[in-house]
Automatic annotation (TrEMBL):
This is Probable nicotinate-nucleotide pyrophosphorylase [carboxylating]. Its EC number is 2.4.2.19. Hexamer formed by 3 homodimers. It is an enzyme of class 2 (transferase). Residues 27-112 form the Quinolinate phosphoribosyl transferase N-terminal domain. It comes from Thermodesulfatator atlanticus. GO terms for biological process: NAD+ biosynthetic process; quinolinate catabolic process. One of its GO terms (cellular component) is cytoplasm.
Amino acid sequence: MPLIPPHPLLYKALVVEALKEDLGHGDVTTNALIEEGQQGVGHLRAKEELILCGLEVARLVFRCIDESLAFVPFKRDGERVLKGEVVAELRGRVSSILKGERVALNFLQHLSGVATLTNKFVEAVKGFPVKIVDTRKTLPGFRVLEKYAVVCGGGSNHRFGLSDGVLIKDNHIKACGSIKEALARARARLPHVYKIEIEVKDLKELKEALAAGADAVLLDNMDLETLKEAVKLARKIKKDVILEASGGVRLENVRDIAASGVDLISIGRLTHSAPAVDLHLKIVALLP
């Protein structure tokens, strides 16, 4: 199934703000050195192996600078790109290419970094019937793009925001008084279409959640042995309950977590700690 990028309306304001931040009152260096009519060709190139994400965002950056610029992608979002490969070509005013260069690269390097890290986790659990999913731990304003980057890396999306699904966490439980009471209120007050997920931290809370009819359970920060016991217990009590493991997930232990039998592994670091990958933009030719 082809990847469908988010509609530009969902992130155009972010692109515009980034350009305003970078350009300020104008690019004084480019304005002083480059003739306005000078035409050229620029190549966006990978400097390391990566999973690509953000081409349409980069296209929008340059379109906001100069609608006459031609942006020609050579790769697709979600594609593995090798070191040295060109991912896109730009043709048009050299001054326009230079004015959009840094902002376009910032988006591409960050989003491709999220996709690349996600793909490492996905590859690490290959062979197990488990999904790697993201969280709401995203940079403010970047959520729709970062969650798209997770999908480009082969991962799946958890809820996009608080309005997308029910996830009862420890502070909700504390405010309600108990797991049973929290689930009872959710059942009584929410439409029937919602599945209800609740967070538990030990086997006692897991039993209480299952007895109260939770549709899904987030097994939070459990050590591996407790996690295995929790999965066995849950499958015995309610075979079709959705089980999500979260907390302390690293590349070094994610395969062991997948082997426990959970359905989902949610990882905050996919978005909040993904290192940027290395791409650059070089003017490769000047045109008459």
